Amino acid sequence: MENVLTKTRKELLEDLPLGIKQLFTSITHLKEGEKVLVITDENKKEIGEFVYKYAKEFFETTMMVMPTREGHGAEPTEAVRAAMNNCDVAFGATTYSMYHSKARLDASKNGRLRWVGLQDYALHMFEKGGLTADFDEVKEVIDRVSEYYQGNTFKLTAPGGTNMVCSVKGRKPVFDYGTSREPGSASFPPNAEVALGPVEGTANGVLVFDGSIPHPLLNLLDEPVICKVENGFITEITGGREADILRKILADFNDPTVYNIAELGLGLNKENYLCGHMAPDEGSLGNIHIGIGKNLNFGGHVDSPLHLDLVIKDVTVVIDDCSLMKDGELLV
Ligand SMILES: [Fe+2]
Question: Keywords assigned by UniProt (predicted)?
Answer without folding.
Answer: Aminopeptidase, Hydrolase, Metal-binding, Protease
